């Protein structure tokens, strides 16, 4: 074991060094936070349990359901399998701030106008996936919607309305030339 | 800004201190009649408030607070129930605030269940009369207070938008201005409710009150509870039900950064940490040896065999009409079948002949010929449905702060009084010392009618100093669910010369959830849930005999699951009636239709669904339509599913058309949403749902092995609602049970193969 040679003195200094290494600065919704967790800690738990931002939800822990979706530099990403040490200087956007982006605001409005939600638990993730889609593709086809949204599970079966709401939000975008 | 209109966190539930104050008792200067409710975030309504009953409190600011005895788990009850109050009280929906009801069976029991719980699609059915009466009573007392002040006759006044108006003079008083006087008015005995023609709100597409918080991440579910100083725990429970912890090596787990404590229980180990990441890492580092106990070798096949055997004996008679045995005896020679496999037989008196298709895992037998019209026919089959997990999107969780003499619990649960009682027992406290803070529910589907999670969390919290939130991993959630029971059905029918069923016999075996959950409702070997959908069929069946055999599976707990009894029974009865239509060589819709003499509402939805679906119009090869017709939860529903069966045998549901008669529609948008929801939920079960045991362990672990229907597999769904002024029926579950046989029947139409065991087995449908 690499640490078996530690004397009590070196253990102490190791502890200090370890602490410095293990503290991560992450940028969430334009705020920088310093978090002291193991580097392999998934972002999801840092958001929910360390920073207290509970809008991002836990569903499966293995990137199968999309409930934990956030944006990392604008890309829809499953935070449950994204380690804190992999983030570097990336910009993280969560459901709490997605309404500040044009696509996010349109999606949230369409969700309300179209009465998408039921239990609502998966909807943070759905909205994050849909916002990323709309930001990169203002006029998604049904196949595009399938591609972007099929990673998000909804047990209440709001899929029909999610599709309609995305189409509704896309209608407010300028027509393609 | 999101209006802070829904007080999602329940307030102090310690009702014993200050409930039932009697008339004219005063708190904070206000006058209440029967009960003052604890104050939540909506304290605005508490000073000088008027509380004519357990549901309504009106403040001097005219704010109406509705104490919600039903929970919101997606079904829209936080919008539709306030609509009832607002309608009769003549206030806008915006004026109504909500509070979760505290645990109190006396005040908040669902009249249809007899306990305080939200389930069985009966919140609206339970609330329809009492909640409107609550609103109307309050309105009459407010009017009485205003007319007394004005010295006018009540008949010269009307109410509108939260005001009493004296019509001749145009004088107005806001409700808030007369609440103190209203509390002194006599409580009217019988109140007259509005007639449907006068409804202003009921029947409109009112917007969901809970939607804004759910699209911006601020809605709080049980899993979002964060009392000060809370630690996060996750757990490993004995992989075999009934097993025990033999030994734990927690050295490595304790070394994980952020892990604070390891809690060892008899049959589980929990890791308490600063955050779930550390707790999960700690859990993975634990070395646990289990004593698997008596179910160490249990497999699903053994349970299925036992249930099958149970159907060979006799059961409790759930319903008997005429003499099915006698009528059946006049039908064809009975053909005995191996019970190991799904089985179908058509037999004719003469000439005898037989066609057999023997396949590796099953054997299909056709007996009979084109001369069937001149003979009576007997059709027999056996059906099976699997154990199912709930897989609510919000994994099981419960936060507990166990203090010396009381216990505080944060949870989202469908039955808070049950949680309180069972947690109190586990904590060794009286129920009034257990404070329940109920939350929004991230999917209930029956899972959260149970208190096992709260009990487990209390067991862990007893060892933890300060509050602890216990969060199940998805794997624990699926492998330690309480499951929709496995059912085995043996069903037969005799047809007359025209193919009409003259005898119907059905005997099925499976777990009675009711017998455990609500023991008094299990009587003489029967319970109303296990048999719903198997008895009181919409069809004219002159000789009808149904028996239920209660047979509890060993080594696996069972519970309610969305659409409960009908989830199993409607699959069987609607598949079997389809078999009879096929045996009679008649169209599936026409065959059903001819049996609906006593059920005009069923006939109307069937006709509507068939028409809208284009029933009878040609479809491409490999596709087919299937129909189902159901009366359950007080609503009539007909579905037509259109499926496509690939060469590989995979089934895709392309389109679903449904027609529903659910009586008075409170909110048409909610009706549509619930039908869409139920169909997706049921289609998921039909295509993928199956929990299996091997070596006593649940084999499925997460969404990779317990698959859900996804966006790219979602059919188009059309919902057609029949207008009605009858009392409302339930909506939350009806689509779930009805879609399963519609899919199975459509598969039969598309591929010629009858599916008598769920879920769909692609290997049976594979084409060379």
Task: Kindly describe this structure.
The complex is a heterodimer of chains A (177) and B (768). Chain A folds into two domains: 72 residues, Beta-grasp domain (Ubiquitin-like (UB roll), Roll), CATH 3.10.20; 74 residues, DNA polymerase, domain 1 (Orthogonal Bundle). Chain A is built from six helices and five strands. The N terminus of chain A is likely disordered. Chain A is an alpha+beta fold. Chain B is 28% helix and 23% strand. In chain B, a hairpin with a 5-residue loop joins β4 and β5. In chain B, α4 packs across α5, α11 packs parallel to α12 and α16 packs parallel to α20. Chain B is globular. The chains are: A alpha+beta (177), B alpha+beta (768).
What is the topological layout?
The complex is a heterodimer of chains A (177) and B (768).
Chain A: H1 8-22, E1 23-28, E2 31-36, H2 43-50, E3 69-72, E4 75-78, E5 91-93, H3 102-113, H4 123-136, H5 142-149, H6 159-171
Parallel strand pairs in A: 1-5
Antiparallel strand pairs in A: 1-2, 3-4, 3-5
Chain B: E1 6-7, H1 15-18, E2 25-27, E3 30-32, E4 56-58, E5 64-68, H2 77-89, E6 96-100, H3 105-108, H4 123-150, E7 157-160, E8 163-166, E9 171-174, H5 175-182, H6 211-215, E10 231-237, E11 244-249, H7 251-254, E12 259-264, E13 268-273, H8 276-285, E14 287-291, H9 300-310, E15 316-321, H10 324-329, E16 344-347, E17 354-358, E18 363-367, E19 377-385, E20 397-402, E21 407-411, H11 416-427, E22 434-438, H12 452-461, E23 468-471, H13 474-479, E24 487-495, E25 501-510, H14 513-517, H15 528-531, E26 544-550, H16 564-583, H17 588-593, H18 600-613, E27 623-632, E28 635-645, E29 651-661, H19 668-687, E30 693-694, E31 697-698, E32 716-721, H20 734-751, H21 762-765
Parallel strand pairs in B: 1-6, 5-6, 10-23, 21-22, 25-26, 29-32
Antiparallel strand pairs in B: 2-3, 4-5, 7-8, 8-9, 10-13, 11-14, 12-13, 15-26, 16-19, 17-18, 19-24, 20-21, 20-23, 24-25, 27-28, 28-29, 30-31
């Amino acid at each position: 074991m690499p640490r078996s040679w530690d004397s009590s003195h070196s253990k102490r200094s190791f502890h200090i060094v370890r602490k410095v290494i293990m503290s991560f600065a992450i940028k969430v919704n334009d705020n920088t936070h310093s978090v002291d967790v193991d580097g392999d800690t998934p972002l999801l738990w840092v958001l929910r349990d360390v920073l207290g931002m509970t809008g991002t939800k836990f569903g499966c822990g293995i990137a199968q359901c999309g409930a934990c979706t956030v944006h990392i530099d604008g890309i829809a990403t499953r935070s449950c399998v994204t380690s804190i040490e992999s983030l570097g200087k990336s910009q993280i956007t969560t459901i709490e701030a997605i309404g500040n982006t044009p696509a996010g605001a349109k999606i949230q409005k369409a969700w309300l106008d179209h009465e998408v939600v039921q239990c609502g638990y998966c909807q943070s993730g759905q909205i994050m996936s849909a916002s990323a889609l709309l930001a990169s593709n203002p006029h998604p086809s049904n196949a595009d919607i399938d591609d972007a949204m099929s990673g998000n599970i909804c047990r209440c079966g709001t899929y029909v309305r999610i599709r309609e709401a995305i189409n509704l939000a896309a209608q407010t975008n300028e027509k393609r030339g | 800004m999101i209006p802070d209109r829904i007080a999602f966190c329940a307030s102090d539930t310690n009702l014993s201190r200050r409930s039932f104050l009697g008339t004219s008792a005063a708190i904070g200067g206000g006058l209440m009649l029967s009960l003052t409710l604890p104050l939540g975030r909506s304290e605005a309504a508490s000073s000088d408030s008027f509380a004519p009953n357990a549901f309504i409190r009106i403040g001097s600011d005219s704010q109406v607070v509705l104490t919600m005895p039903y929970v919101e788990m997606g079904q829209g009850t936080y919008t539709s129930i306030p609509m009832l109050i607002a309608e009769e009280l003549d206030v806008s929906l915006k004026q109504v605030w909500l509070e979760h009801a505290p645990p109190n069976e006396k005040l908040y029991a669902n009249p249809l269940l007899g306990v305080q719980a939200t389930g069985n699609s009966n919140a609206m059915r339970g609330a329809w009369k009492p909640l409107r009466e609550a609103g109307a009573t309050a309105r009459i007392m407010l009017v009485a207070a205003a007319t007394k002040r004005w010295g006018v006759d009540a008949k010269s006044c009307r109410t509108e938008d939260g005001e009493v108006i004296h019509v001749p003079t145009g004088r107005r008083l806001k409700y808030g201005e007369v609440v103190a006087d209203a509390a002194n008015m006599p409580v009217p005995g019988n109140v007259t409710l509005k007639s449907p023609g006068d409804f202003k709100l009921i029947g409109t597409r009112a917007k969901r009150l809970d939607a804004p918080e759910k699209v911006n991440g601020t809605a709080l579910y049980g899993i979002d509870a964060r009392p000060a100083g809370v630690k996060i725990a996750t757990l490993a429970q004995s992989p075999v039900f009934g097993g025990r912890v033999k030994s734990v090596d927690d050295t490595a787990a304790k070394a994980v950064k952020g892990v604070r404590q390891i809690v060892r229980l008899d049959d589980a180990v929990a890791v308490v940490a600063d955050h779930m990441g550390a707790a999960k890492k700690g859990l993975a580092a634990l070395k646990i040896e289990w004593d698997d106990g008596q179910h160490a070798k249990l497999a699903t096949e053994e349970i299925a065999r036992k249930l099958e055997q149970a159907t060979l004996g006799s059961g409790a008679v759930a319903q008997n009409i005429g003499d099915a045995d006698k009528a059946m005896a006049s039908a064809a020679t009975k053909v005995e079948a191996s019970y190991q496999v799904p089985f179908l037989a058509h037999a004719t008196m003469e000439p005898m002949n037989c066609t057999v298709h023997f396949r590796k895992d099953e054997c299909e037998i056709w007996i009979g010929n084109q001369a069937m019209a001149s003979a009576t026919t007997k059709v027999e089959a056996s059906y099976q449905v699997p154990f199912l997990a709930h897989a609510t999107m919000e994994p099981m969780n419960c936060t507990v702060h166990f203090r010396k003499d009381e216990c505080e619990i944060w949870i989202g649960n469908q039955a808070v009084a049950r949680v309180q009682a069972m947690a109190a027992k586990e904590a060794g406290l009286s129920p009034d010392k257990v404070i329940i803070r109920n939350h929004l529910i991230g999917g209930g589907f029956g899972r959260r009618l149970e208190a096992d999670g709260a009990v487990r969390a209390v067991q862990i919290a007893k060892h933890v100093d300060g509050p602890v939130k216990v969060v199940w991993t998805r794997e624990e959630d699926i492998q330690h669910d309480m499951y929709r029971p496995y059912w085995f059905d043996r069903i037969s029918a005799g047809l007359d010369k025209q193919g009409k069923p003259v005898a119907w016999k059905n005997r099925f075996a499976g777990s009675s959830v009711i017998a455990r959950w609500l023991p008094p409702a299990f009587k003489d070997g029967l319970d109303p849930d296990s048999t719903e959908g198997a008895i009181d069929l919409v069809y004219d069946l002159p000789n009808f005999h149904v028996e239920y055999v209660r047979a509890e599976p060993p080594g696996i707990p069972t519970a309610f699951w969305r659409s409960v009894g009908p989830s199993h029974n409607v699959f069987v009865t609607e598949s079997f009636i389809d078999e009879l239509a096929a045996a009679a060589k008649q169209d599936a819709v026409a065959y059903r239709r001819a049996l609906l003499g006593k059920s005009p509402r069923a006939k109307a939805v069937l006709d509507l669904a068939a028409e809208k679906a284009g029933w009878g119009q040609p479809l491409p090869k490999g596709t087919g339509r299937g129909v189902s017709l159901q009366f359950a939860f007080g609503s009539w529903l007909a579905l037509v599913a259109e499926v496509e069966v690939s060469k590989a045998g995979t089934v895709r549901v392309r389109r679903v058309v449904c027609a529903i008669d659910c009586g008075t529609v409170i909110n048409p948008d909610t009706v549509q949403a619930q039908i869409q929801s139920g169909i997706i939920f049921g289609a998921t079960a039909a295509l993928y749902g199956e929990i299996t045991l091997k070596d006593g362990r649940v084999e499925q672990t997460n969404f990779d092995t317990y698959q859900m229907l996804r966006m790219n597999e979602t059919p188009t769904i059309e919902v057609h609602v029949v207008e009605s002024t009858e009392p409302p029926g339930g909506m939350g579950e009806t689509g779930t049970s009805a879609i399963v046989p519609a899919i199975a029947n459509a598969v039969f139409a598309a591929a010629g193969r009858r599916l008598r065991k769920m879920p769909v087995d692609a290997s049976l449908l594979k084409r060379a």
